[in-house]
Amino acid sequence: MDIILIITVGIFLFNLLFLYRGAVGRIERRNQATGEYQDLGPVSEKEEIAFLEGTHKSLAFFQALIGAFIWSLIAYGIMHLVKYVF
């Protein structure tokens, strides 16, 4: 298997975990590291409704999945480009 693909999968998994924790914290308005309540960014109306219904973690996972996929594609593209240019 290509080393670039293995690195990309690692980047994807790291980003998925990191972005999921961030999205959950932002929606819950709670710092995931300290547990303190604070405003961590804007929350949409859809996210607010999901929080009140208790489905915000699945929404945060979907958001993190999309974000991790995009960042992994960017990283893969850069590594692939550098591999063939240099």
Description:
With 86 residues, the chain is mainly alpha-helical. The protein has one domain. The chain contains three helices and no strands. The chain has helices at residues 3-28, 45-53, 56-85. Helix 1 packs antiparallel against helix 3. The model has no long low-confidence stretch (mean pLDDT 94).
Summarize the SSE layout with pairings:
Blueprint: H1 3-28, H2 45-53, H3 56-85
Helix pairs in contact: 1-3
Encode the helix/strand succession as letters.
HHH
Number of helices: 3
Residue ranges: pLDDT <50 for 5 or more in a row?
none
Judging from the principal axes of the Cα atoms, what is the shape? elongated
Give the terminus-to-terminus CA distance: 21 Å
Share of helix, binned: over 70%
Question: What's the Cα radius of gyration?
Answer: 16 Å
Query: How many β-strands, per DSSP?
Result: 0
Taking all residues together, what is the mean pLDDT?
94
What is the beta-strand fraction?
under 5%
What structural class results from the helix and strand content? mainly alpha
> How is the main sheet built?
none
Total of domains: 1
